[in-house]
Records
---
Amino acid sequence: MLDRDTVSFNTLINSYVKSCCVGDAFGAFRIMLDRGFRLDGWTVTALSGACAGLKDLRVAKTVHGVAMRALARKIFHSQEVAFGLVDMYVQCRGLVLARKVFDLAGEMARDVRLWSTMVSGYARSGEVKVARQLFNEMPKKDLVAWTALIDGYVQAGRYKQALVLFEEMEEAGFEADEVMAATLISACVQYGALDVAERLHHRVRHNGLISRDARLATSFVDMYAKHGCIQIAMDVFCGVSDKFKTVELFNAMINGLAHGSFGEKAVALFDEMVSLGLHPDKITFIAVLCACSCSGLVSRGFEIFDSMVDKHGVEQDIKHYGCMVEVLARDGRFDDAYHFIQNMPLKANKVMWSSLLRACRIHGNIKIGKLAEEQLLQFDPSCKPKNLLSDLFADGKKKERAARVKKAINHKPDQRHMKFSYIEWNGKVHQFGTTIKTSHAQAKEIKLILEDMSKQLHISDSLSRGRTGHDSEMVALAFGLVNLVQDPQTPVKIVSNRRMHVSCHSSLKYLSKIYNKDICVNDGIRLHKMKQGSCSCMDYW
C-alpha cells in the first residue's frame, strides 16, 4: 500500500487477532507506532482481543496503560473500548481489574453486552452469587445475559439452580437457542431432568438446528445414552448429515453404545467413523476398547489397540492399557491379563490392579486375585479403588487377608462428595440420600416400601436406616415404586452421582424380579439395565 493510515493498521491488527496470530498483531502495532501513527479506540479494541487470546494479565495491564495515556477521555470511556478492556481482563482472570473498568465506565458505555461479559466472568470463576446479584441489577436483559448466568451455574456444578434459572428465563419470554440448549443439556445429564431435555430437543428439532449443529447433537446423544435411551440417541446421531459429523459426536455415540453393552454396534460405528475420513482420538479408543470388553471381542480389541500408533498416530496411555486388561479379564483369560500388565511399558496403577481383582472376584480366580491383591496393598492405604474387592478372600483361613485388604483400601467418607441419587417424577427431579427425610411428602409410603425391601432381601431393616453410604439408589427406587405402581410398564430410571456399590447392585437386580419392575441406573460409570434379576452389565462393571 502506498498510503497507510490508522484504519489500515487497525484492519491488519484485527485480522491477525481473528486468525490467532497474536505475535503478528503486536508486531504490526509496533510498526504502527514506529511510523508515527496514533492509535484510536479500534486499535485498543483489537489489542484487547490479542491479550484475551494470550491470557496474559501482565500484557493486558500494559495495553490498558497505553490506552489510558494515548486516548482522549471520551474515546477511552466509549462502549467499544470499555467492552474490549473488560472482556480482556475476564479472559485473563483479572476479575478485580475488569470490575474496576466496568464501574468506571459511564452509563452510556454499560450496554447489555458489557453487563453480560461481567456476569459471565463472575459466573465462570465460580462466584455465582456475585454474578446473580449483578444480573439482578441489569437494567435490560437479553438471551446472552441469561446464557452467561446459566452457563456459570452449570460450570459451578449447581445444576438444579441452572434449571430453575431456565424456567425463570422462559417466564420472562425468552426461548433457548442452540448455545443455551447445549449448556442446559449438560445440567440435564448431571441432574437427571429428562423432561427439560426432551422439551429442548423438540424445539431444536422443529427448527432443524440439531441436524446441522454437531455440538448440539453431541450434547443430546450423550444425554439420551446416559439415560438409557440408546435408540433415541442413535436417531439423533443418524439425523446429522455426514458432512457435519465430528469426532466428538462419534465419541459420544460410541461411548453410549459401549456403556449400554452394545459392543458390536459400537465397533461398527468406529469403523464407519474411520471410513468417513475422521481421525479417532484417545477418547475414541477408550470408548471402543470398552465396547470390546463389554462384548468379549478380544481379537478385535487387540487389533484396534495395535492400530493406535501404527495406523492412527495416537499414543497409548495407561487408560488404553487398562481397557485391554479388562478385555482379557472379562473373557476369563487371567494369566494373559496378568502377563500383559507385567510386560507393558507403563507402570500399572491401583485402578488397573483393582479392575483385575474385581474380575477375579466375579470369576472366583484365587490365584491371580492373590497376585493382584499383593500389588494393590503396595499403594497408598489412604486411597480407595472404585470397589471394595476383598470379599474374594473372605472365606475360611483367608479372613485375615481380607481384613488387610479392607484396611488398605478403606477410607472415611468425604462429606464434600456425598452420595445422592436422582429420579424424575411428574416433571420434577427428586434427590435422595441414604435416608428419607421426615419432611418429605411421601415419607411414610417410601419407608413402607423400604421395609418391604428389607424383608425381601433378608437384611434386618438396614435399608430403612440407611446404614451404609451406598443405599441412595434404594431410597430412589422406593420413591419410584410408590409413584409408578399404576404404571407397571414404565421402568424406574435413577441417576447417581457416584459409582454404585456391589451389594447395592446385587440387591437392585433381585428387586427387579421381586417387584417385576425394570430398573435403569446410571452411576456415571456404566448404564445398568436390570430386568427379572439380571443386568445388562452381566455383573462386570
---
Amino acid sequence: MYGRDPWGGPLEIAADSATDDDRSRNLQDYDRAALSRPLDETQQSWLLGPGEQKKKKYVDLGCIIVSRKIFLWTVGTILAAGFLAGFITLIVKTVPRHHHRPPPPDNYTLALNKALMFFNAQRSGKLPKHNNVSWRGNSCVNDGKSDSSTLFKDLSGGYYDAGDAIKFNFPQSFAMTMLSWSVIEYRAKYEAAGELNHVKDIIKWGTDYFLKTFNHTADTIDRIVSQVGKGDTTGGDPNDHYCWMRPEDIDYDRPVTECHSCSDLAAEMAAALASASIVFKDNKAYSQKLVHGARTLFKFSRDQRGRYSVGTEAAIFYNSTGYYDEFVWGAAWLYYATGNNSYLQLATTPGIAKHAGAFWGGPYYGVLNWDNKLAGSQVLLSRLRLFLSPGYPYEEILSTFHNQTKIFMCSFLPYYTSFNRTKGGMIELNHGNPQPLQYVVNAAFLATLFSDYMKAADTPGWYCGPHFYSTDVLREFAETQINYILGKNPRKMSYIVGFGSHYPKHVHHRGASIPKNKVKYNCKGGWKWRDSNKPNPNTLVGAMVAGPDRHDGFHDVRTNYNYTEPTLAGNAGLVAALVALSGDTSVGIDKNTIFSAVPPMFPTPPPPPAPWKP
C-alpha cells in the first residue's frame, strides 16, 4: 500500500501483524531508553503510575526535610521526657516536704526581743492597740491641762522614767538618741530579729512627745518643758514618789516644770530629734519636722546658756554637771541630719571640746551615760574621720577625738587598770557606786560599734601603747559584759526580767507590783504592795534592773531601788548593745545611711574655660 509522501517521495506503509498490546509495550521500552537522566519520585509517579511508588523515607516539615526514622524517634523522646517530668512533678507536689528549720535565735536576739518590751510598759498617755502589755492601760492623758501655770496644755504621751510615773526629759531624750543611733548603724540586724518596726514605733512615741514640749513650729523659742510630775517627798504631799499607785489610777496633781536656760537639756533633745530624723528619712514630711525642731532647740541651747537642773528637784534625781558635752553631741547629730558645715565647725571647736573635758582624764573618762555624752561624741566623730576624712580645717580635732577613742577603748580591756572588775568579771565603770549596769551596757555598745567601724574601714586593730590589739578583743569585752548581765555571773542570775529562769521577781516598779484587779488603790493604799515580800503580780518583761554591787551581790528587794529599779536610759543602752552583738557576726554596720544628708567633702572642680578666641 502506497501513500503520498509530503516531501515528494512515495510512502510505504507495511501491513503490521503485531497486536496493539505488543505495540504499546514496545513504545514504552523506547520511551525508557530515551531517558538520559534519573527521574525524581514525582516524575516517576507521573510517568510510571501508582503501581511502582516506593515507601517514603523522609518527612517534609516545610522548612526542612528530615529522615522519617529520626522524626519519629525525636517525637517519641519528647513525649517520653514530658511524661517523666510530669510524673516527677506530681510526686514532688504530693509528697510531704521537710523544711530545714533556720538556726534558733542566739541569746542576744532573744534578750533584744524582751528588752524592747520594757518601753511598751513605760508608755504614758493613750496607748496604742498593739502595745502588748496586758496589765497596762491609758494613763495621765491630762498631763499639762491640770497645770494652769504652763503654756503647754497637751503633754500626754512619752515615757515614765523608771519605777515611778515622772517624765524626766533629760534622760528620756538620751534614751531616744541611743535607740536611734543603734537603728542607724544596725538596721539590718533589727530587721533580721523582726524588731525594726517595733523599735521605730518606740522612737516615734518619744519624739512625738518631745515635739509637744516646745513650740516646734517656731524658729526661736524661750522655754521648753523639762519635767512632768514631782518626786520630792520632803513636803509629804501626794506625788509620784510619795504615792505607790498604778499610773492608770493617778488622781493627784502632776505639775509641769519649764526651763528658760537649759543648754544641756535642749541640746540633748536636739540630738534626739536629729538622730530620729535619719531613722525616719523615708518619711520626708516627718523627718523634716524633726530636723526643724532640732535646729530650733539647738539654737535655744546656744542662746540661753545654763544647766537645766539648777534650782529644780531634778538636781536630786538627774543632776547635770555641764552642757559642753551636749554641745558637741547635739552639733554632731545635727551635722549628720542636715549636712550643714556650721554644725561640724561647732562640734570640732577646740574650746568647746576643752570645756567638755576632752583634754583631761578623770575617773569617768570614756564612760558614756545620760549626763556625759563626750565618749559617745568622740566615737561618733571618729566615724566621720574613718569613712569620709574631711581634712582641713576639721582634721586636727577629729584626729584628737579618734586617738582619745582608742585610749578609752584600751581602758575597757582587762589588761589595764583604769577600772576595777568584780570577781565575777563585771567592769566597775562607776567605781563601785550603785546602779552599775547602765554604764556597762553603754560601754559594751561603744566597744562593739568601734570594732565594727574598724572592720568596715579595713583596719585590723589599734595600739594601746606598744601593744597591738585586734578588733575582736573589743567584741570579746562586750560579749563578756553582756553575758554577765544575761546570767553568766556568780549568782547565775539574769538581770533582765523574763530572760532565763532565774531573774529578779521584786522589781521596784509601781505598775508591775500592783495587781490589775479592778481595785483602785489610793496614794497610801498601794504601800502594802510596795512593802510586800511576794513577787510582782505582773512581769515587767525586758526590764534591766539597776544591778549588783561591787561584790557581785544582789538583793531582790522591791524597796531597794539601787538593786531592783530599771530605767529608760539603762534599757536603751542595753538594747543598743544587744542588737550590735546579735545575729550573724559577718553583718556589720550600715556605712552610708548616716551620711545621707552630708554633701561631698570636696567641691566638684569648675568646668574648663572656654576656648580662647583672638
---
Amino acid sequence: MMGGHLGSMGLYCMAFLFLPVARGSVLLRFINIPFEHATRYHVWLGHLTMVLFTLHGLLYIVGWAMEGNLLHKLLSWKDIGVAILPGVISLFAGLLMWVTSLPPVRKWNFELFFYTHQLYVVFVLGLALHVGDFIFSMAAGGIFLFMLDRFLRLCQSRRTVDIISAKSLPCGTVELVLSKPGNLRYNALSFVFLQIRELSWLQWHPFSVSSSPLDGKYHLSILIKVLGEWTARLRGSIMNISEAEQPASPSQPRPKITASVEGPYGHEAPYHLMYENLILVAGGIGISPFLAILSDILHRVNEGRPCLPRNILIVWAVKRSNELPLLSTMDLESICPYFYDKLNLEISIYVTRESDPPLEEGDIHNVTVSSVCPMSKGCGMSVLVGTGDSIWSGLYVISSTVGFVISLGILYIFYINPCSISTWWYKGLLFFGCMLASVVIFGGLVVGLWHLWEKKISAREEYEENRLKPGMVQHNEDAVNLFQKNHTSITTIQYGSRPDFKGMIPCNARFCLACVTQ
C-alpha cells in the first residue's frame, strides 16, 4: 500500500515535470517565465519524482522478496491490471537520466547527460504500458504540451539557415551573422540554440544574441568564445574556408557554413528599457548580450523611440588585453551620432591577469578579421518558435487538443468498444499513439498553414531593403580607429585589478543590475 501511494504521488509530480522544459510553450509565455528560468522547476520536480518512483519500486521489490516470488513478479506482464515489466524498464530509464543529471556527472561529461536524457521517450512510453490509459491520463496533460513544443521545435530546426557572415577575431572569438525573415521578432535579451551541420548533426549550443532588432530586419548576430572542442572546430572551419583559393570557374559553388537555429527564446518584455540607471557587469564573452542592449538603447535614442535609460555603466572584466577588440564589433558613433550629448555612458574595463598594458597599446584594438560571406539564396530562420505570435500558437495547441479528443473518441467508438479491448497496457499504448498522432496530423496541418503564411508575408517585403551586405558586416581598421578616437573619453582600462563595486554604486541609487560571466 505504501508503494502504491508513493507511485501515485510521483505520478502527480510527473504531471508538471515536462511543463518547464517546453521552450516555446504558450503557457510559459502567458505566465512570463522564460525557459532558462523555468528549468530550475524541472530540476526540482525531477528529483522529487525520481525519489518517489524509486521508493515506489523498492517497496514493491522488498514485498515480493519477502513473499519469495521476486523474479516472477519483475518479469510479469499482465493483460488486466498493472504490467510490471514495462514499469521496471521505465524506472531503469528514469534512474539513468537521474544519475547522469546530477551536478558532478553533468559537469564531468555534459554530452553523457544530454544523450542519456533522450531516454525520456522510453520513460514515458514504459509508464503508459505500465499503468494503462486511465491512470496515465493523470500525467498526460503536461506530457502532451511538451510533445506539442517538441514537434514545433523539430519543424523549425529542420530548416537550414544561411550564415551571411562569419568572422574570426584574434582574441579567440567568432562572430556569426545569421539570416532571418523580417517578421521574426526578438529583443536584445534573447538567445538562440545553434547547430552547425558541418560539425555535428546532434549538438545544439545556446548563445546570447549580440545584435539589436533595430540593427537590421534581416539578420541576427551572435558572438561565440572558443572554449571547447566544438567551438574550436567552428573557428578552424571559418579560417580554412577564408584561406581557401577562389573557385576555378564562376559556376563552381563556393564552400560555405550552414546552420540550423532554434529560437529566439528569452524574455519578451524589454526589461533593459524600464530603468533610468543601468549597471551591466560582464566577464569575458559575457559582454555579448550587453552589446545588444547598448545597441538597442542607442538606436532608440537616435530614432526618438521610448527609452528610459539615460545613465549606463558597463563593468567588464577580462583576463587578457587581447579580448578588448570585442568592443570594436559595434560602432557607437555610427548608430547614434553625438550620443554622448544624449546619454551618460561609462565603460570600465579591468584586465585581471596583466599588471601593465602591452608595449604598443594601440595594437590591442587592431582587429584583423577573417570573413566568410556566402550570401547564397537560402532560407532565413523560421518564425515557428520565439516570435510571440499568440494567434498561430493558440491555433496549434487548440487544433492538436481537439484532434486528440476526436482521435480518442473515434478509437473507442469503432475499435476498443466493439472489439471489447480490455488489456491495460494495450489501451495505454493506444492512448499514447493518439497523443502522438494528433500532434503530427492536426498540429502539423496548422504548422503547414503557418509556414505558408510566413512565406506570404515574407514575399510582400522588400528583401533587398536593409538586407545586410558583406561590406556592412566587416569591421576594418578605420572603424576600429574611429572607435578609439571617439570613445576613449568614456572608456577606462585598469590592469591588474578587479572591480570595486562599493565605490561605483551610490547607496541610494535605484538601478537595474545585470551580470553575465563567460
